[in-house]
Write a structure and sequence with these properties.
There is one protein chain. The chain folds into two domains: 69 residues, Arc Repressor Mutant, subunit A; 144 residues, Chorismate lyase-like (Chorismate lyase, 3-Layer(aba) Sandwich), CATH 3.40.1410. 26% of the residues lie in helices and 29% in strands. The chain has seven helices and eight strands; from the N terminus they run αααββαβαββαβαββ. The chain has a six-stranded antiparallel beta sheet with strand order 3-4-5-8-7-6.
Length: 248
């Protein structure tokens, strides 16, 4: 994320307003002051403020209603080329009961590996909310989850009891995101993974690691480990266009 001093006025206001929306200082349904009042409050031209509000409206964060004003939009489900899955819904789609068992929840400094994978700059975040737990499909372990959340971008998470809320489902409902990145790898179960998923030591597993962000600032980094024998990744694609160009 650029230091505020090096950003344009447009970028600075986009970041400030996104932060207000994400932290729910401006909750869903909140009516913003009129454009002229906002421009005066932040010391910019009306043209600059209109550009900022139009961009946030285009991205789905705001709704502009003629003669009524500008409002924060209600959260919407979002998808990418590879969708951010809701494990609870995924399990229920199999006709099984979903259960999430939280095994650890604490504030702590991010590890060097987490800083690298979440792209956290030194001094950017003092502590992260670290969560660990197991998803069950019926009585069978379905997925082991390890997650860190940026409390600066999702402060409400600090007050959530994740013994009763599934972390991924809560984030999908509450926190908008603008970019997600998946990394998929094959691993062998170590002692912790084997114990939590009821596997033999060294058994093949599928690990999906995902980082999501809002306007260049990370929100969450999650690693989900599945038993390899019972899971697969499916991707759907179409042939090249008529001009013969290939998708990169």
């Amino acid at each position: 994320m650029k230091p505020e001093k090096t950003r344009s006025l447009h970028e600075t206001l986009l970041h400030r307003f996104l932060t207000k929306i994400v932290t729910q200082e401006w909750p869903p349904g909140f009516q913003l002051p009129f454009e002229t009042n906002l421009a005066e409050e932040y010391g910019v031209s009306r043209m600059t403020m209109n550009k900022v509000l139009s961009e946030l409206t285009r991205q789905g964060y705001l709704v502009r209603r003629r003669k009524l004003g500008t409002f924060v939009a209600q959260p919407k489900a979002q998808s990418a080329i590879m969708e951010i899955s809701d494990i609870e819904a995924e399990v229920r789609a199999l006709g099984l009961e979903h259960r999430f068992t939280l095994t650890a929840q604490r504030l702590r400094p991010p590890t060097p590996d987490e800083r690298r994978r979440a792209i956290i700059a030194d001094g950017d975040v003092g502590e992260v909310l670290a969560l660990e737990g197991v998803h069950f499909a019926g009585a069978t372990p379905f997925c082991l989850e390890e997650r860190i959340i940026n409390p600066q971008m999702a402060p409400a998470a600090l007050d959530v009891d994740f013994n009763h809320e599934v972390p991924g489902s809560w984030l999908l409902r509450q926190i908008p995101w603008t970019l997600g990145r998946h990394t998929i790898s094959a691993i062998n179960a170590d002692r912790e993974v084997a114990r939590n998923l009821g596997l033999a030591l060294g058994e093949a597993c599928l690990r999906v690691t995902r980082r999501t962000e809002i306007s260049d600032t990370w929100v969450t980094l999650v690693s989900q480990i599945y038993p390899g024998e019972s899971h697969q990744i499916v991707s759907q694609f179409t042939p090249p266009g008529e001009d013969g160009r290939r998708a990169e």
